[in-house]
Design a protein that fits this description.
START-like_dom_sf; Activator of HSP90 ATPase; Alpha-D-Glucose-1,6-Bisphosphate, Chain A, domain 4; ASHA1/2-like_C
């Protein structure tokens, strides 16, 4: 099982960043790498609440984990600490054993340089998900998060 850890600075207060971590419309905007679109099927933003999200590749040649061009994952919020931390437990909906298994995503928010440092740790990556690809996707998503919350 692999792991990635990304730190990204956001020029916005922790409370605004935290709200963007728990808002379905915000998630559909920022929590999707470049070259994909997001569809939030379900999103219950409370501790123990469940979510289900699909990411579909724009390029017809890209291969999805769930269907030909789509990665669908579901999970629940394991821990929420207001304005400080969101812990999610997720898993891909797939028949491929190399992509199966629960992953834990911990996003921690820390005051820094007049804004917020976002620290995202993604543990339990299945063997079929290269850490470098996961890291690149997180970097793209966190850049989108910064743009989203910095715009107000």
């Amino acid at each position: 099982m692999g792991s990635t850890r990304i730190r990204h600075h956001v020029n916005a207060p922790r409370a605004r960043v935290y709200r963007a971590l728990l808002d379905a419309r915000a998630i559909a905007t920022w929590k999707v790498p470049e070259g994909m679109t997001s569809h939030v099927h379900a999103f219950d933003a409370r501790e123990g609440g469940a979510f289900r999200i699909s990411l579909t590749y724009d390029a017809p040649t890209a291969t999805g984990k769930t269907t030909a061009h789509t990665d669908t994952y579901h999970g629940h919020f394991a821990k929420l600490v207001a304005d400080e931390q969101v812990v999610e437990v997720t898993e891909f909906e797939t028949e491929d054993p190399a992509l199966q298994g629960e992953m834990t995503i911990t996003v921690t928010l820390v005051d820094a340089d007049g804004g917020t440092d976002v620290i995202a740790v993604h543990d339990g990556l299945p063997s079929g998900v290269p850490s470098a690809d996961n890291e690149e996707g997180w970097r793209m998503s966190l850049a989108k998060l910064a743009a989203f919350v910095e715009a107000g």
